[in-house]
Design a protein that fits this description.
seven-stranded mixed beta sheet, 32% helix, D-Amino Acid Oxidase, Chain A, domain 2, binds flavin-adenine dinucleotide, FAD/NAD(P)-binding domain, 11 helices
């Protein structure tokens, strides 16, 4: 269906943040256009799909009001479920903790969330690129050619390179260490632990990050590296590191022997925290566009959805005349700002540890499983902070 000339709200990007925003805004009776440049939502895949269960998310971001769509995930969107997370230190020693999580199929989950938004009344427009943002007027280029649409409020949920954010000067810091590169393969023909998600550390394989193995059920798995270009060796790219991990890592290469690569996935992960400003009088950004990600693990599905929900509620309240749109800024920071900020701080600290395999192996040996879980979730228990201080990492 051809879009109208104007809407109450236009949401740019039908990923987890945008579809959640569109669904909640439409539920509030607003006219909503949800637009995405992809021809097939969720494709190409740019995600490992690791998503802790709802109860775990409640502990992770305790002040956040989680969208119900994080609890009611259709079985068809879940590859498999895991109950354990294992860290493998550079010296090969492993340690882990219990965590109940799904490995979700983002190709299906993104479509499901967009369908939920459409069911709530949002107009969904795919294969349509937003090429220009002029205030609340957008130039679209897609199935209906090039045309202009307007809205009272624009929600930019258009990922880490947000055109909406850039047009409104809401941009993340340009610190190269604040942007991660994630490169993944989907594999078949493997026999990996279906109950556990594994995370591997070591400067040779994953400078400034970690590699993961996530079972996708049966004989399939998703493996990847989340690393920082600023820490790459000369002449090495993200794919080179993943190949090195797959074929040469002393533990992983044995587990993955005989694997066939069925899909290649790459993307960027904004691990530098939120831009200083995420709202203007008529525009807000949410999800990766707003740095709504837990920097210690690169997980952003749930926080993007929380950001999307708050964006919709703030826009609807504003259009109901209840508040300024800028209320969004305080609302999301109250619900999950502390966790996002702490995770960036912990990530910076981990960066120092990750420079040395010896230090990283010592830290993994020293830190209890319980505390490891907290760190992974972007928290820094005081006892760990004190121990790390003793390691003279320049922490203050
Ligand atoms: C390789 C990789 C692995 C990851 N693994 C995990 C994981 O296991 N668990 C986890 O929680 N997180 C993971 N993440 C992070 C997670 O994928 C993101 O945090 C999450 O997708 C953010 O959702 P979003 O809706 O903000 O943005 P996105 O999912 O990026 O959606 C943005 C949408 O906007 C659209 N768009 C962009 N620009 C325009 C435009 N100009 N016009 C129209 N449409 C536009 C895009 O097509 C896209 O559909 C991973 C990221 C990467 C790159």
């Amino acid at each position: 269906m051809r879009p109208e000339d104007s809407y109450d709200i236009i949401v740019v990007g039908a990923g987890p943040a945008g579809s959640t925003a569109a669904m909640y805004a439409a539920e509030r009776g607003r006219s909503v256009l949800l637009v995405d440049r992809k021809k097939d939502l969720g494709v190409p895949l740019q995600c490992g799909g690791f998503l802790p269960h709802y109860e775990t998310l409640e502990e992770l971001v305790p002040r956040a009001e989680l969208p119900f769509t994080l609890e009611e995930i259709p079985k068809s969107c879940i590859h498999t479920s895991t109950s354990y997370q294992r860290f493998i230190a550079p010296n090969g020693v492993s340690k882990g903790f219990h965590v109940n999580a799904h490995a979700i199929d983002r190709r299906r989950f993104d479509k499901h969330l967009a369908q939920m938004a459409a069911k709530a009344g949002a107009q969904l427009l795919i294969a349509t690129n937003v090429t220009e943002v002029n205030g609340t007027e957008l130039i679209l280029d897609g199935a209906f050619g090039e045309y202009i649409v307007k809205a009272k409020v624009i929600i930019g949920a258009d990922g880490p390179n947000s055109i909406v954010g850039k047009a409104n000067n809401m941009i993340r810091s340009d610190d190269p260490m604040g942007t991660g590169t994630a490169f993944e393969y989907e594999l078949s023909g493997v026999d990996v632990d279906k109950e556990a998600v594994e995370m591997y550390f070591g400067t040779e394989y994953v400078p400034g990050g970690y590699a993961w193995i996530i079972s996708q059920g049966g004989d399939t798995a998703n493996i990847g590296v989340g690393i920082r270009e600023a820490m790459f060796e000369e002449h090495m790219g993200a794919r080179d590191y993943l190949d090195r991990f797959l074929y040469e890592h002393p533990i992983a290469s044995k587990k993955l022997e005989g694997a066939s690569i069925t899909s290649i996935v790459a993307g960027i992960v904004p691990v530098g925290g939120a831009p200083k400003v995420t709202a203007t009088k008529d525009t807000i950004i949410a999800g990766d566009a707003a740095g709504h990600i837990i920097a210690t693990n690169g997980g952003g599905i749930s926080t993007a959805m929380v950001g999307g929900k708050i964006a919709a509620e703030s826009a609807s309240d504003h259009l109901d005349g209840k508040c300024d749109l800028m209320v969004y800024e305080n609302r999301w920071r109250e619900q999950m700002g502390l966790e996002i900020k702490t995770a960036v701080y912990v990530r910076k600290l981990m960066d120092k540890l990750m420079l040395s395999d010896k230090l990283m192996s010592t830290a993994i040996k020293m830190i209890s499983s319980e505390h490891m879980k907290s760190i992974q979730c972007g928290q820094l228990p005081d006892v760990v902070r004190k121990s790390l201080l003793k390691m003279n990492l320049g922490l203050n």
